[in-house]
Design goal:
Elements lengths: L13 H50 L9 E5 L5 E5 L6 E9 L5 E3 L25 E6 L2 E6 L6 H10 L2 E6 L4 E6 L8 E7 L2 E3 L1 H5 L13 E3 L4 E5 L2 E5 L3 E4 L2 E5 L15 E7 L1 H26 L12 H5 L3 H13 L6 H14 L3 E3 L9 E3 L6 E3 L9 E3 L14 H8 L1 H22 L14 H55 L1
Antiparallel strand pairs: 1-16, 2-15, 3-12, 3-16, 4-8, 4-11, 5-6, 5-9, 7-8, 9-10, 12-13, 14-15, 17-18, 19-20
Helix pairs in contact: 1-4, 1-10, 4-8, 7-9, 8-9
Length: about 500
């Protein structure tokens, strides 16, 4: 847009006049912009809330549907220098005995020092150490073999690389002038060997030069540690395994040492392992869920039952200039707090979650659904207070951190201690109900994406509509503004012409 000079001949402030006329037209534009701004704020609120709901759904709610969440084991070992033990939910409660006769080891081979007139480096060729060209070296690791042929370019570094390809840990220490080879895994099944041959005939000259086999002439011999299986017993049953880490009947056992006078038949010997359900851990995990659930529920209640922001619309840039930063922030906060007031999608999620948490399940019924006992969260002292303003927040009997029912007996902890299986079944069923309700609320539709609690597709479509409407209206207003400037410019031009004619006439009459 070029520079506009107006009112030079008419003396009128045409800029101000046009601005006043256009302000009326721009009211429609501001209204559309306000709708789009509100929608953006609404989307921001929903995205934040959706993330919190999805996190609750995938972590706490999902895991609490399974028995594992209620079977956490507390396992202690009387001597962790022999065996360290943890427990799976399937571990049998009680006292266990572990004896260890032998730890599993990996085979290792430390080569004898390579003596020579000059130090050997990783770049030294095997040819210079006496290897014949065409010699084949074969690494056998377990039941697998890897063979490579030595040529004039093969170096110490290449030998190490081939050993690694075969599945070994391998290194040549230039300071010590020795090779170090070892199996990656423990156990007799992971033994290894290195063979040298040419034209099918076994040889040892090259391996002797590398210090990897006994050399009677030099009186040298590499140090070898044999691979062994672990031999140990649990409650009198002996095991022979390739690893020191084993899982037996729900006990995760890591062997770290051996016991004196090993005798698997003597159950009075060895390490004492005590396994019990960790009620405190199970209780705290469920309590943590209730705390997180309440936090999200309170936020949803505040958003859904927020006050009306009647008379509050997003501010235009001109309006913001006339207000302080604090006043602008307070104004916008008032609007944002009401963005999800009575939102249908939010109301649906709220009702679904509250319904699930108030549901009851039948435990111990037969195949026909008869018999058994019905449980709800209230059966375990997890219930709402008498304050209706809390709108469904849950409190726990005996929870010292919750003043509502802290003075009452802790029903949940007592149930987990005295009736762990029934309690776990009941809580699993209620959590399954909540999980299913939340899953249904996140199903993809024509209005919303999958795994989303709100109508994101609908909002995005509406946002595009507002953007299109704004651009169309803005282009129309710009045309109207240009039309007014052209009309006033034409008037100024006509007045300039009249003034010129008047001046000419005056000049003639003056003569």
């Amino acid at each position: 847009m070029g520079v506009r000079l107006s009112g030079l001949n008419s003396g009128m402030d045409t800029e101000a006049m046009i601005k006043k006329i256009m302000d009326a037209h721009k009211l429609k534009l501001n209204k559309v912009e306000g709708k789009r701004t509100k929608l953006d704020w609404q989307k921001e609120k929903w995205k934040d809330l959706n993330n919190k709901l999805y996190s609750l759904y995938t972590s706490k709610v999902s895991s609490l549907r399974f028995a594992k969440a209620y079977g956490t084991k507390k396992v202690t070992s009387s001597d962790e220098k022999v065996a360290k033990v943890t427990g799976e939910p399937s571990a049998v409660d009680g006292i266990h005995r572990i004896q260890v006769k032998q730890l599993a080891t990996a085979q290792s081979l430390t080569g004898s020092k390579i003596e020579g007139s000059e130090p050997i480096t990783k770049k030294t060729s095997l040819k210079d150490l006496g290897f014949e060209m065409g010699t084949e070296l074969t690494f056998k690791v377990g039941d697998k073999e890897h063979t490579f042929e030595v040529d004039e370019n093969t170096t110490i570094e290449d030998f190490v690389a081939e050993a690694k390809k075969a599945g070994l840990n391998a290194n040549f220490d230039e300071k010590q002038q020795r090779f170090y080879l070892s199996s990656k895994e423990t156990g007799a099944a992971n033994t290894f060997s290195v063979k040298e041959s040419k034209y099918g005939e076994e040889k040892e000259e090259g391996l002797k030069a590398l210090g990897l086999v006994k050399d009677d002439a030099k009186h040298t011999e590499p140090t070898k540690v044999e691979a062994k299986n672990a031999i140990f017993s649990v409650d009198g049953t002996e095991y022979n395994t390739a690893s020191n880490v084993n899982s037996i009947n729900g006990l995760n056992i890591t062997l770290t040492g051996t016991t004196a006078n090993y005798n698997s038949a003597d159950l009075s010997k060895g390490v004492t392992v005590a396994s019990n359900t960790d009620v405190e851990s199970v209780y705290n995990n469920f309590k943590s869920f209730i705390k997180e659930y309440n936090s999200i529920l309170k936020e949803m209640n505040d958003l859904y039952y927020a006050g009306v922001a009647k008379g509050y619309d997003p501010l235009t840039s001109e309006q913001k200039k006339e207000m302080s930063a604090g006043d602008v922030e307070a104004w916008e906060k008032k609007i944002k707090e009401s963005m999800l007031r009575r939102d249908p999608a939010l109301g649906k999620v709220l009702n679904a979650m509250k319904t699930a948490m108030q549901s009851a399940v039948n435990v111990g019924a037969d195949e026909d659904g008869k018999g058994g006992k019905r449980y709800s969260l209230a059966s375990f002292g997890v219930m709402t207070s008498t304050d209706y303003k809390e709108k469904g927040l849950l409190h726990m009997y005996g929870d010292s951190e919750d003043g509502v029912y802290s003075g009452k007996p802790d029903k949940l902890k007592k149930a987990l201690t005295e009736h762990p299986e029934e309690t776990a079944e009941a809580l699993k069923g209620i959590m399954e109900n909540l999980y299913n309700k939340m899953t249904d609320a996140m199903k993809g539709t024509s209005l919303s994406s999958a795994m989303t609690f709100y109508n994101d597709k609908e909002m995005n479509k509406l946002s595009d509509s507002y953007k299109k409407e704004y651009n169309t209206l803005e282009a129309k207003i710009n045309k109207i503004e240009d039309k007014y400037y052209k009309q006033f410019a034409a008037m100024e031009k006509a007045m300039a012409k009249m003034n010129a004619q008047s001046n000419s006439l005056s000049s003639l009459l003056g003569k």
